[in-house]
Write the structure tokens for this entry.
Amino acid sequence: MAGRELIVGPETPEKPYPILAEGEVVRGFGRGGKQLGIPTANLPESVVESALSEIPIGVYYGWAKVAGDSVRPMVMSLGWNPYFKNEKRSGEVHIMHKYDEDFYGSHLKIAILAYIRPEKDYDSLDKLIEDIHADIRAAEHSLKREAHERVRHDAFFD
């Protein structure tokens, strides 16, 4: 939304970050690309319930790599998505790159570097989309910092 900070999180990732997770991209609810215009790569429920169970629900930023591609910036929604009234906690990764094809079944690695904001409910789809775009801008600016950029080259992504 208007007035949000362009840089969030500490200058250098602090414990518990970076949080590293990986899994096969699974089909989600089909809303990200189609309804929101912001496609997501969804992590399996097992990864959300194990590797990501100790962090609060909300929106995060970091780096992501789909097998065979480069490491790219990402934002991730972890939670219940109250606007859509999900019954399961999900991990939905928006890789900040335009892909021509889906990559369901591909191996996805993520490094979460910082928390952007808590999960919210919205009274309109437009307000949700506006906030997601603000999250993306915050991730773009925050990841330019040297300590965050270094994680992009971590051996985890090899």
